[in-house]
Fold this sequence. Notes:
Blueprint: H1 2-7, H2 15-42, H3 46-58, H4 61-65, H5 72-85, H6 91-94, H7 102-112, H8 117-132, H9 140-145, E1 148-155, E2 158-165, E3 170-177, H10 188-201, E4 207-211, H11 223-240, H12 244-247, E5 252-255, H13 258-263, E6 267-268, E7 271-272, H14 276-283, H15 297-304, H16 308-329
Parallel strand pairs: 1-4, 4-5
Antiparallel strand pairs: 1-2, 2-3, 6-7
Helix pairs in contact: 10-11
Amino acid sequence: MQCICSMFRLPVVGRKSLFASNVARRCLAQKTFQKEASILDSLYSDAEKEKILDTFNRCNEYELQHTRQLNHHKASSIVRHRKDNGNFQTLSDILLVPGVGILGIQKICNVLRTLDYETLRDKTSRADFDRIRAEPNISEKTCQNVRTLVTLDAQLDGITWTKIDRNLLVEGWDHISLFDRINQKLDLYQFLEKLHLIKDKLPEADIYVMERKVFRNINPRMVPFLFNMKILDAMLFTLLNSDFESSVDHKIYMVAPTLVSQFFGLSVGGERVSGQHVLQDIERMQSDVASDVNIPYARWDTFKNLNNVQKEKYANSLLLGVAFYKLIVLRSHRLPL
């Protein structure tokens, strides 16, 4: 029995050898850190180091990402480490950030050596404006005065609208039928008559928002359809801006289709996917960017009784309104890079 037990007995590493192994590992890590810190310190002049450290100590996550040298995870790690441990005093302090190696730090330092914080901040702000601007440009005064907006998902078969107030309360949403068939032959008189009826059914709001449509793989058969869509947009602009001559203020604005897809992460392989799951997250109060959206129970009942195609139109209209408020009117959020 003694022999059999001894056959299955595992070898034991002595405490002294284990301690020595750990000490050797720590010494090697310390030597590697000192070597990397020395290399990093030798690459830049004192003036460049001061400029780089000033930017690292003032940048937020988004501004660090805008350098195109750091992803979201690494930028977040740098900002979190700075908040927990205080400002970086030397370039070697940045090497202590978990998940950020010397090659990554060297790349961003090479960018920041010629770029002060104010310049980077201005570039980030301009890039934000170019990515999320409305057409026509919406003034800061108009944004401050917006109390309600109505988003319009306009198609030839009808218009789906959502009215949202400044506190992100959904005051109403509905679908108004326009034409029975999207490929039927239409004339301007039909358009005008139908849109006048629709205008009377739309709720009053400070501004109206639409998404600019983008069509791919266009063939000659689509030309009449596209022509009718352009007529629809033009007439809606004219009817909803009827008091433009006296007020000189636009009431209807258009945004790029990428605004909603980027804000809610609805782009897969460059194509827009369904946003219905975002509404489910809103209902469960699990949305990262739209948990403060308030949809009354009566609105949910309306939505749940729709077919899948109608749900998609309602979802598009609602998400457009939320994105427009947060990115353009309130400026409380930014588009991810």
